[in-house]
Amino acid sequence: MDASMIPDLTRRLEAVERSNRRLKALAACVGLTLTAVVLMGQARPAAPIAQTVEAQEFVVKDASGVVRARLGTAPTGASLNLFHEAGRASLVVAANKAQGAHLALADTSGKIKGLMLLSEQAIGMYLSPVDATGAPKSPRAVFEVHTQGPGGFAVYDRNGHTRALVGAIAEDGTSVAVIQDKDGGVTWKAP
User: Fold this and answer.
1) Of the given ranges (21-25, 154-158, 171-175), which has the lowest mean pLDDT?
2) Of 146, 143, 145, which is closest to residue 154 (Cα–Cα)?
3) Which residues pair with 152 in a beta bridge?
C-alpha cells in the first residue's frame, strides 16, 4: 500500500462512518415510531358508561377534605346527611322500617329545629326555635295526623305547655279548637 493512498482512505472511511451514524439514527427513529404505533394500538377502547354505581356509602368532601355530604346505609335503613363547614349535620334525610322516613333540619350547633316524620302510625311536622325532638319542653308548633283519624295543629309555650289546639283531636273524630292560658285552663273553645 502506497503512502499517497492514506489520505484518500481516511476521507473515504470518514464518509462511511458518517453514513453509518445517519443509518443508526434513522433506524432508531423508525424503531421508536413502530413501537409507539404498536403501543397506541394496544390501548383499550373507552369503556361504556356504567348505568349503575353500587356502594355502601358515598362521601363528598370539599377542597379542604372536610366531609360535606354522606349517603349511606346501615342495617336498619339508609340516610343522606348534609354537613356545614363546622362538620355538623344540617340536614338529615333517613328511612327505616321501625321509624319510617324523616327529614331533620338542624342549626349550626346541631340542635334539630325542624322535623318531618312519616310512619305507619302518623305523619307529623314539628318546628321549634330551641329543639323539635322529644316531648315538648320549649316553644313548638306541631302538625300531626294519625292513621286512625285524630290529627291537628298544636302550639306549645316555652315551658312545653299546650297553648292552642285546632283539628280533629277528639277521640270520636270531631273537630275542636281550644286556646289555653299559661296554667292549662281553657280560655276559649269551639264547639
Assistant:
1) 171-175
2) 143
3) 144, 167
SS3 at position 181: coil
**SS3 at position 57:** strand
Asked if 94 and 106 count as a contact pair (C-beta separation under 8 A), the reply is no
Cell of 191: 264547639
What is the spatial distance between Cα 189 and Cα 67, in angstroms, rounded to a whole number? Answer: 51
DSSP 80-101: EEEE-TTS-EEEEEEEETTTEE
Rounded-to-integer distance, Cα 128 and Cα 136, Å: 9
Instruction: Summarize pLDDT for 52-111 with one digit per residue, the tens.
Output: 888 889 999 988 888 899 999 877 888 999 988 888 888 889 988 878 898 999 988 888
Q: Quickly tell me which residue has 453509518 as its cell.
A: 20
191 DSSP assignment: -
Residues 30-39 pLDDT 10s = 887 777 777 7
Answer yes or no: are the C-beta atoms of 127 and 141 closer than 8 Å: yes
Separation between Cα atoms, residue 18 and residue 29, nearest integer Å: 17
